[in-house]
Design a protein that fits this description.
304 residues, mainly alpha, flat
Length: 304
């Protein structure tokens, strides 16, 4: 899990426009600094780090939407989402290749269709990496990130007065906390890959909402943040296993009868790993329940 970015100069009484400018500037700079390593030919770590940085900025951009001009939000939302998707196309292949290597470890002579799958994934990764590089070139050529940076700087001009950051932070974290609890309740009831993935997304949004404000929201919220980070990792293991299971089942459907046993063996390994990850997620969620309660009281409705 990437370390949170510390936003200097924020206090409970900081006008929210100034807080938005500081947080957005810091997260935008963080992701721009990670672009060069991600552009190297085979930097799996660079891709991962840039994807995390883009997700962090995207969530900050969404979080501070009430402070941004509607025109600014609409103009930049699309390319941020497209960049996140392009990074996902590369990263998904990296994760699949790593999982496939783990699943096939110990197989001396895998059937040809099994042996061909890594080569197909590598080829798809090259195509996705080329598309990502082209997108980064276009954004730089058009000066899009620089334009956004200038608009973020202009938020400071609105910061002479206005709503205090602490009030805004409590409201946003409360919204996301209630959302993740509802998503997890649905995931426990439905127990589908889709519902578990939705819970993971909600948990991620909660973590990123806490990050800029953790120092001012109290120890209960900071405790929740640490556990939510672990929850995110475990739910990620479940999601990766679900994605790999679908890929293996699709590949098995096109394999010859003689090779199906090998594919079934790989699927069994992946399903077994998923079961372990899901048990960990359920156990961690049980421990999270009282932390959710504590944090909800800490950011609860303001007293009148």
């Amino acid at each position: 899990m990437a370390k949170p970015i510390q936003i200097a100069g924020l206090s409970r009484r900081t006008p929210i426009a100034r807080a938005a400018s500081k947080a957005l500037r810091a997260t935008l700079l963080d992701f721009l600094e990670k672009v060069p390593e991600a552009r190297s030919a085979d930097s799996k770590k660079g891709i991962h780090d840039l994807r995390v940085a883009v997700k962090r900025f995207r969530e900050a951009f969404r979080l501070f939407r009430p402070v941004l001009r509607k025109k600014t939000f609409r103009r930049h939302r699309e390319w941020i989402e497209e960049l996140n998707d392009a990074l996902g196309e590369v990263r998904d292949r990296d994760v699949a290749l790593a999982q496939l290597r783990k699943a096939t470890a110990g197989i001396a002579e895998p059937p040809r269709s099994v042996a061909d799958l890594p080569a197909r994934l590598e080829s798809e990764r090259l195509v996705a990496a080329a598309a990502l590089a082209a997108m980064l070139d276009r954004l730089q050529l058009e000066g899009v990130p620089a334009q956004l940076a200038a608009q973020i700087e202009s938020l400071e001009q609105q910061a002479v007065s206005g709503r205090p950051t602490h009030e805004f932070a409590r409201e946003r974290v409360r919204e996301r906390l209630l959302d993740v609890r509802a998503r997890w309740k649905a995931a426990r009831r439905e127990a589908t890959p889709e519902s578990l993935h939705r819970a993971r997304i909600g948990n991620k949004r909660l973590r990123y909402a806490i990050e800029p404000f953790s120092r001012m929201l109290g120890k209960q919220v900071r405790r929740l943040y640490r556990s939510a980070s672990r929850f995110h990792d475990v739910l990620g293991d479940v999601h990766d296993a679900d994605s790999m299971a679908v890929m293996l089942e699709t590949s098995m459907a096109g394999a010859s009868r003689a090779e199906r046993n090998a594919w079934e063996g790989l699927s069994t390994k992946v399903i077994r790993g998923r079961r372990v990850a899901l048990r960990k997620a359920l156990t961690l969620a049980d421990k999270l329940e009282p932390l959710w309660d504590e944090a909800q009281r800490a950011v609860g409705e303001p007293r009148h």
